[in-house]
Design brief:
Elements: H1 2-27, E1 29-34, E2 39-44, E3 49-54, H2 64-94
Antiparallel strand pairs: 1-2, 2-3
Length: about 110
């Protein structure tokens, strides 16, 4: 029974640390850039887009398709950065133990 009690205590501690990490991730922002910085997309730790900045030179009628591609590319760059930050935080939290595939924090 002592092992079970100890295991439950560890699970509660892990749960508390997970909640702290989730709050940190929500507050975190990552920027993705494309087109040599002509387009910047900002995502929060949940992967939600919180901002887009577009250089004025890209706002020409004949640049629409290029601008669309740059927004998608900048979003992809920011998403990779958010995912990498998440992996780092999880590795620190779990002591390097791998997280099961498909496991989501949010």
């Amino acid at each position: 029974m002592k092992n079970f009690t100890q295991m439950m205590k560890q699970a509660q501690e892990l749960q508390g640390r997970m909640q702290e990490m989730q709050a940190e991730m929500e507050a975190m922002t990552c920027e993705g850039r494309a087109g040599a910085g002509m387009v910047t997309v900002t995502l929060n730790g949940k992967g939600e887009m919180t901002g887009v900045a577009i250089d004025a030179s890209m706002l020409k009628p004949d640049e629409g398709e290029i601008l669309e591609d740059l927004i998608v590319a900048a979003h992809g760059d920011a998403k990779v950065k958010v995912e990498e930050a998440m992996k780092e935080k999880m590795a620190a939290l779990t002591g390097g133990l791998p997280i099961p595939p498909g496991f989501k924090l949010f």
